[in-house]
């Protein structure tokens, strides 16, 4: 359900952007300085990438790549130590010991097949999205 709604939201946003593409490009060009300042505040090493691309400095681009790869490698090394315990905890399941069988409902064959097909239909977000679009 969440995937279906998310996909429909993305399709809707794409439609809006495609109808307003002229305004969007003009707005992006007009605000390019503030956008780049925001990116540089969030990820300061991007300054090296900007300098490398604007000045044609291979050394700045190389430093940017090395810094980005080293941060990623550091994250992998730290996460690697705790991965097995996190994975084991995620795969654990607990069952209630005091399970009691309640009243079972029955329906006709036609209704049972209908319910089964509806569950199968909504279990596949691709079918639902393709039907709606």
TrEMBL record:
Keywords tagged on the record: Membrane, Transmembrane, Transmembrane helix
Domain of life per record: Bacteria
Transmembrane stretches, start-end: 56-79
Record bears the keyword Transmembrane helix: yes
Protein name: ABC transporter permease
């Amino acid at each position: 359900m969440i995937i279906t709604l998310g996909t429909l939201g993305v399709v809707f946003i794409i439609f809006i952007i495609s109808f307003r593409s002229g305004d969007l490009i003009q707005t992006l060009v007009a605000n390019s300085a503030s956008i780049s300042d925001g990116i540089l505040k969030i990820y300061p090493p991007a300054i090296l990438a900007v300098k490398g691309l604007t000045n044609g400095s291979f050394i700045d681009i190389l430093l940017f790549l090395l810094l980005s790869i080293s941060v990623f490698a550091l994250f992998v090394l730290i996460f690697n130590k705790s991965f097995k315990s996190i994975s084991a905890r995620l795969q654990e399941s607990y069952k209630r010991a005091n399970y009691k069988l309640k009243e079972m409902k029955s329906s006709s064959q036609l209704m049972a097949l209908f319910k089964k097909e509806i569950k199968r239909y909504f279990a596949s977000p691709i079918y639902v999205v393709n039907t709606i679009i």
